[in-house]
C-alpha cells in the first residue's frame, strides 16, 4: 500500500461527522501506520460547499 486518498464531499456538510469518524478509524489502524494520507474536498465549486 503506497498511500490513501480520502475524499470528502465538501457540499454535504451533513456527512462531515461521518467522514471524520471514518478518517479517525484509518488513523487508528496500526496496519496503516506510516502510510501517507491525502485528504481531498470534492465538489468545492458548488456555492454551498465548505471552504478550507
Automatic annotation (TrEMBL):
GTP binds at residues 42-45. Pfam families: Arf (PF00025). One of its GO terms (molecular function) is GTP binding. It comes from the Eukaryota. Signal peptide: none annotated. InterPro entries: P-loop_NTPase (IPR027417), Small_GTPase_ARF/SAR (IPR006689), Small_GTPase_SAR1 (IPR006687). Keywords: Endoplasmic reticulum, ER-Golgi transport, Golgi apparatus, GTP-binding, Nucleotide-binding, Protein transport, Transport. GO terms for biological process: intracellular protein transport; vesicle-mediated transport. The keyword Transport applies. GO terms for cellular component: endoplasmic reticulum; Golgi apparatus. It is found in: Endoplasmic reticulum; Golgi apparatus. Belongs to the small GTPase superfamily. SAR1 family. PANTHER family: RE74312P. This is Uncharacterized protein.
